[in-house]
């Protein structure tokens, strides 16, 4: 089943799930468990980050493994999707599957996890019961943070006069921005202005278009060439002279 404007190319979600194990009833069972039955006939390339993560997890579970290793399973997910995934993982744990989660953040460790290990300098430095170990790790982390209190961060470089914007000129002015894939709108006539000194937080569920909007601003999106950025009035390359941008790594497959 295709959505409005979606083309009939690429594999469906059901085909991705059954990439190695062809078992339609089990595919349906897993899709029901993870709440993605409505996506089975949809092209995988159109899924959001959260939908993609659930699809690939179903794919890994098709072979009914005794051990499931997940590398950064919560990366790129919004708050609601992280909670849903944590609940699904807890149910897998209760069903008897052994789970190993590779995580970067202490606050992402699910409640059902019993044991934990701390990897430092490519060495498994500590292992033990989760609660005990986290207390040790947190103390070490806090101690390290205290040592950094007196550290002076380097002053930023003075902006080049050649690239400087007038002090009172808006930093971003997007007028009626539009991004679509095969006539399927992702951003539709979006206008946005960021003034000097303002701080913005862009929020929304996975698939809402947050990364697409930022890729327009940075000039990384191919359709950005068609957009009107009044504040810069420049090419994408020239626009980057005014920007600093840190992007979280996100893996998309297939």
From TrEMBL:
Keywords per UniProt: ATP-binding, Nucleotide-binding
GO molecular function list: ATP binding; ATP hydrolysis activity
Gene3D superfamilies tied to this protein: P-loop containing nucleotide triphosphate hydrolases (3.40.50.300)
Highest rank taxon of the organism: Bacteria
Pfam families: ABC_tran
UniProt domain ABC transporter: residue ranges: 22-74, 187-223
Listed name of the protein: Putative molybdenum transport ATP-binding protein (Photorepair protein PhrA)
Organism expressing this protein natively: Escherichia coli
Gene: modF_1
């Amino acid at each position: 089943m295709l959505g409005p404007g979606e083309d009939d190319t690429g594999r469906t979600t059901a085909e991705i799930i059954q990439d190695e194990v062809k078992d339609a009833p089990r595919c349906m069972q897993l899709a029901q468990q993870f709440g993605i039955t409505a996506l089975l006939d949809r092209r995988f390339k159109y899924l959001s980050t959260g939908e993609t993560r659930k699809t690939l997890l179903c794919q890994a579970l098709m072979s009914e493994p005794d051990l499931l290793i997940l590398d950064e399973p919560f990366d790129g997910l919004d708050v609601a999707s992280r909670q849903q995934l944590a609940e699904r993982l807890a149910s897998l744990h209760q069903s008897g599957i052994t789970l190993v989660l590779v995580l970067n953040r202490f606050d992402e460790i699910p409640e059902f996890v019993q044991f934990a290990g701390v990897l430092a300098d490519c060495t498994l430095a500590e292992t033990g019961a989760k609660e005990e170990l986290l207390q040790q790790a947190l103390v070490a982390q806090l101690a390290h943070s205290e040592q950094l209190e007196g550290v002076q961060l380097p002053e930023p470089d003075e902006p080049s006069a050649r690239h400087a914007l007038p002090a009172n000129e808006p930093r971003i002015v997007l007028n009626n921005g539009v991004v679509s894939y095969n006539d399927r709108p992702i951003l539709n006539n979006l206008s946005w202005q960021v003034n000097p000194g303002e701080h913005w937080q862009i929020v929304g569920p996975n698939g809402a278009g947050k990364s697409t909007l930022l890729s327009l601003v940075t000039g990384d999106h191919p359709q950005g060439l068609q957009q009107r950025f009044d504040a810069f009035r420049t090419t994408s390359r020239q626009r980057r002279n005014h920007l600093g941008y840190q992007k979280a790594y996100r893996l998309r497959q297939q």
